Amino acid sequence: MAFQRERFLLRCVAVVVGVQLSTAIAVMGVCLGGWGVNRRLCDSASKGVEVAFETALGTTLALLSGSGLVAASRRQRSQQNER
After folding, report:
1. 33-62 pLDDT, tens per residue?
2. Staple partner for 42: which of 11, 31, 32, 57, CB 3.0–4.6 Å?
3. How far apart are the first and last CA of the chain?
4. pTM given for the model
5. Rounded to an integer, what distance in angstroms lies between the CA atom of residue 41 and that of residue 7?
């Protein structure tokens, strides 16, 4: 079976998003649980989680659009070679 770059990248992104989601749930659980955590700390943690998700979504879109461009380029080259 040949190495599929797009599938590998999507799985890596899925792992990263899963870890970020788990971290976000843990942070929000601690902050909402009221375990004596400083309010300012929770505000900065929520901003950090927000930035992390925005970055993950941007990376995912960039990888998907890049893999789409690569696939289109390969199709175009193979069609030109067939002529």
Report:
1. 766 667 777 788 878 888 888 887 787 778
2. 31
3. 28
4. 0.56
5. 38
Q: Which two tokens stand for residue 62?
A: 């960039």
User: CB–CB of 37/30 below 8 Å?
Assistant: yes
Around Cβ 18, how many Cβ atoms within 10 Å?
10
Please give the Cα distance from 65 to 55 (Å, whole number): 15
Mean pLDDT of the chain: 76
Encoded tokens for 55: 């970055």
Structure tokens at 70: 């690569």
- Between CA 75 and CA 57 the distance in angstroms is 27
Is residue 52 a contact partner of residue 28, using CB atoms and an 8 Å limit? Answer: no
